[in-house]
Design goal:
It is built from three helices and 26 strands. The protein has helices at residues 52-55, 130-135, 294-305, and strands at residues 26-31, 34-37, 41-45, 58-69, 80-82, 85-93, 95-100, 105-109, 113-117, 122-127, 137-147, 158-162, 168-171, 177-183, 185-186, 189-190, 199-206, 211-215, 223-228, 230-233, 238-241, 244-248, 253-258, 269-276, 284-286, 289-291. The strands form six sheets. It has a seven-stranded antiparallel beta sheet with strand order 1-22-19-24-17-14-13, with no helix packed on it. The protein has a seven-stranded antiparallel beta sheet with strand order 2-3-4-11-6-9-12. Strands 5-10-7-8 form a four-stranded antiparallel beta sheet, with no helix packed on it. The longest helix is centred in the C-terminal third of the chain and has 12 residues, at 294-305. It is globular and about 60 Å long. It starts with 25 loop residues before the first strand and ends in an 18-residue tail after the last helix. It holds the Pfam family Pirin. Residues 202-310 form the Pirin C-terminal domain. This is Pirin family protein.
């Protein structure tokens, strides 16, 4: 159950479809394979099999969990570097602790988002807090990588902590969907996230049988990822379910509908709405570095090995294990 909920009947409503608007068609629906990240936590590779051109300005996204850990099982990452992009960690259920070499950090929980600009180079860690490792519990979230244009790749590293309660809440035209806007803008409603690359990111809960039809910036691409549940997307109702990503073609609006019948452990369809202005620059990526050329990747690795990304703090948090 997402941490941030509200009575949709009391929220501002998204404006209905207008006659001069066009629905975006569905270009593709792909299924993300399952794998493991960091020290071994389960993920769905949401963007696998999708062309970089359709994803631009996004580089990578993992759905983390959903998993109900037993005591001693929760895992995260150890300290590692990044350069050239931004990481966005959104926690739907559970807790993750963050710390970085530029003074950013805190606990990400209850629908909160941690937005880290790696820029010129940063070291960081994301790991379950010790008490969660000891007790076990529910863990569900996602991490998104947002590319930076060449002019921003060496920006000063920065950190934003966005509490779940800061997300802008709106409801669908029919009142059957709750939309949490984390960044960007939907129908004139802006989210709290400050983005260097123009994007929109929102998490929607669509009740069984309800429809979410939202206006979408024509100059942005449009993606819908299903976190859980079943439904359809687009004007001709392409079926879609948990772990699948829909890529939309050009137009003014995107549509998601929830099936009347949902899984017994989920009361609704949960989707991530995602889009951004394409950067249209060459991308050279290697592990935690996203640059424009191979030479820049080599330089990033050398800079990291030379300590130019900063130092692990003296009070650093470290992965916790049950003895």
């Amino acid at each position: 159950m997402p941490a941030v909920t509200a009575d949709t009947l009391t929220l501002p409503r998204i404006a209905p479809y207008q006659a001069d608007q066009t629905q975006r068609p569905v270009r593709s629906v792909t299924t993300g394979p399952r794998g493991h990240e960091g020290l071994g936590f389960p993920v769905v590779r949401a963007f696998a099999g999708v062309s970089a051109r359709d994803l631009d300005p996004f580089v990578h996204m993992d759905q983390m969990g959903e998993v109900d850990y037993q005591p001693g099982e929760p895992k995260g990452t150890d300290w590692h570097p990044h350069r050239g992009f931004e990481t966005v960690t959104y926690m739907i259920d559970g807790r993750f602790a963050h710390q970085d070499s530029h003074g950013g950090g805190g606990l990400i929980e209850d629908g909160a988002t941690q937005w880290m600009t790696a820029g010129s180079g940063i070291l960081h860690i994301e790991t379950p807090p010790a008490e969660l490792v000891e007790s076990g519990g529910l863990f569900h979230g996602l991490q998104l990588w947002v590319n930076l244009p060449k002019s921003e790749k060496f920006a000063t590293p920065a950190y934003q902590s966005i509490d779940g309660g800061q997300a802008t809440l709106v409801s669908s035209t029919d009142g059957g969907a709750l939309v949490r806007i984390v960044a960007g803008e939907l129908d004139g409603h802006a989210g709290p996230g400050a983005t260097r690359t123009p994007i929109t990111m929102a998490h929607a809960t669509v009740a069984p049988g309800a429809e979410l039809d939202v206006p979408w910036a024509r100059e942005h691409n449009a993606l819908v990822y299903v976190l859980s549940g079943r439904g359809t997307v687009g004007p001709v109702a392409h079926p879609i379910h948990q772990g699948q990503l829909a890529v939309f073609g050009p137009g003014d609006r995107i549509t998601v509908r929830a099936d009347e019948g949902q899984d017994s452990n989920r009361a609704a369809l949960e989707v991530l709405l995602l889009g951004g202005r394409p950067i249209r620059e060459p991308v050279a990526a290697y592990g935690p570095f996203v640059m424009n050329t191979r030479a820049e990747l080599v330089q990033a690795l050398e800079d990291y090995q030379s300590g130019r990304f900063g130092q692990i703090p003296a009070n650093a948090i470290m992965p916790h294990t049950v003895r």
